[in-house]
Amino acid sequence: AFRALCTKDKLLAAFGERPVRLSTANTYSYRKVDLPFQEYVEHLLKPQDPTALGSDTLYFFGDNNFTDTRLWAPCVLAAVCLGKEGSPAAPLCPGSGSGVPFHWHGPGYSEVIFGRKRWFLYPPDKAPHFHPNETTLAWLQHTYPTLPPEERPLETQWERRSLPQVLYFPDRWWHATLNLDTSVFISTFLG
Hints:
GO cellular component, one term: nucleus
Number of helices: 5
Shape: globular
Organism: Tinamus guttatus
Protein name: JmjC domain-containing protein 8
Strand content: 25-35%
CATH superfamily: Cupin
Number of domains: 1
Low-confidence stretches: 70-74, 76-92
Radius of gyration: 16 Å
Structural class: alpha+beta
Strand order of the largest sheet: 4-10-5-8
InterPro entries: JmjC_dom, JMJD6_ArgDemeth/LysHydrox
Helix content: 10-25%
Largest sheet: 4 strands, antiparallel
GO molecular function, one term: cis-regulatory region sequence-specific DNA binding
CATH class: Mainly Beta
């Protein structure tokens, strides 16, 4: 029932004109851009250009201010369907090849609703080799192959299967993500 309610056509019909807040895909994600959900889906939800800088790449990571529901209404249906309305869940709708480069924050978890997502993780005492304005896709193509095995991150790939897959990321663990398809997932931050 959830998937039937969240088809592209139904979400665009219900929320196409509603604004969404996009963040830059660099480590610090400082820049925010508001635009209609339909514009995001039709013009920006496409495979990542591997030569683009993170500061020039926009993705839908929800907004840091969850009191203004206008800015994340297109995915509020996901939160409602999952019984998480009002929680600090960040509904996410990124395109293929997009992702967030290495960063850390408090603990949380992420659940894939649709699509596939690859995670790269390092413990707090092992900082990764990366440039904060390089996209995860560029890092994977250029830096990752040069890393000796002992310097490579822990890795996992998550996708929607018959049973939900949820990834827990501990407090202050470095992590980067790469969306292998256009995907929808929800991250909840615990601290």
